[in-house]
Design a protein that fits this description.
It is a single chain. This protein is mostly helical and 168 residues long. Among the domains are: 64 residues, Cytochrome C biogenesis protein (Helicase, Ruva Protein, domain 3); 31 residues. 66% of the residues lie in helices and 0% in strands. Helix 2 crosses helix 3.
């Protein structure tokens, strides 16, 4: 009887072990299958293309331009995205090929940083000058007429009356 229970225990252990191996084998076979390549959506492509300019047209964003060159660039962006490139890597690729003029926003390096600094500084300086001007205009008092001496005005009135009498 003892032999029969040992056999059942070994048989049960073997079954459990085989089931465990079968459960582990399922994910491994799923991973072994070829994964479908990533296909970026048009929105993902246009999100990058929106920040770049057409190489042919002047100042036309890449996402709305209808030229063949832009279509090829958008296809290239999609290809790079499907290969796992990041947005910054793709932009850098185009900058390396065509220069920084393809970017809608100049890189913040070199003399380009002035584009980001000068307008706010000019605005602040202009606001300061305007504020100072308004304050100084408020403080200026209107010119007052000098007070006329009563004796002089009386003499003047008297001569004026004499002249009027003579002319009548």
């Amino acid at each position: 009887m003892k032999q029969h229970s040992t056999f059942n225990l070994q048989f049960s252990t073997t079954i459990i072990f085989l089931l465990f191996l079968a459960v582990l084998a399922v994910p491994v076979t799923a991973l072994a299958q070829d994964a479908e390549p990533y296909a970026p959506t048009d929105d993902e492509i246009n999100a990058i293309a929106r920040e770049m300019f057409c190489p042919v047209c002047e100042n036309v964003p890449l996402d709305v331009c209808g030229t063949q060159a832009c279509a090829q660039w958008r296809a290239l962006i999609g290809e790079k995205l499907s290969q796992g490139w990041t947005e910054e890597e793709i932009k850098q690729y185009f900058v390396d090929q065509y220069g920084a003029r393809v970017l809608s926003e100049p890189p913040r390096e070199g003399i380009n940083w002035l584009v980001y600094v000068v307008p706010p500084v000019a605005f602040l300086v202009g606001a300061y000058v305007l504020l100072k001007g308004l304050r100084s205009w408020r403080q200026i008092e209107p010119e007052s007429t000098p007070l006329v001496n009563d004796e002089i005005s009386d003499d003047y009135v008297a001569r004026l009356e004499d002249e009027l009498r003579k002319s009548q």
